[in-house]
Automatic annotation (TrEMBL):
Protein name per its UniProtKB record: Secreted protein
Taxonomic path: Bacteria, Bacillati, Actinomycetota, Actinomycetes, Kitasatosporales
Pfam families (UniProt xref): LmeA
Organism: Streptomyces graminofaciens
Amino acid sequence: MRAVRILLIVAVILGGLFVVADRFAVGLAEDEVAEQLKTSEGLTATPDVSIKGFPFLTQVASGELDDVEVGIKNYEAKATGSGDAADTIRIANLTASMHGVAFSSDYSSATAATATGTATVAYDELLKAAKSEPTDVGFGTTARVTGLSDGGNGKIKVQVEVDPPAFGPQTVSVLSTVSVKNDKVEVHADSLPAVSGLSLAEDAVRSITDFQQSIDDLPGDIKLDKVEAAKDGVQITVKGSDIRLAG
């Protein structure tokens, strides 16, 4: 009995040491991955990296990690809009979960089998894609988008200022559907605004109310999947496969 008790104590101690060593190793690996991502993606701040699964050391021995989660704040993505857009758009929060991350024996390259995640784009950033400068829509009338906000039930509220020469400026709100189309975020008015005393051509009005915003060059070349309006901005779902993380 004494020998069995000693053996159990030794096993518990060795198990504890293994856990400590495993957690220490995963901490070092997370820091290294974060620094590599910061450099490769040209980030201004170090991202959050969390390597899931236990034990970590056996995953390393197999050459594949089960799940790696990455969080990046204020990511500057390349962008092309249909209005007065800048060439970048800031993503307030970008999170991605990489599954089946295989890496080479010398750790110089790594590829995730699949990736899913979310991204948040504030309304003031998405507004860059809209026509915020007065634009002629016929009959000497100009119009421009002055604001975007949450319209409830997954809709975006688009505020449009219309300035007919005979009636003076009017601000109207349009509820719009937001979706992903051709790898772009698209805002499309459900119905057109009524403007006092005028019957403007639909194409002219939609050239103001409807617009698209591309969000390109995301980490690992993940792609836009779905989008919906939320309180502080649009929530975008991203996904991808065979995502190259390094090398």
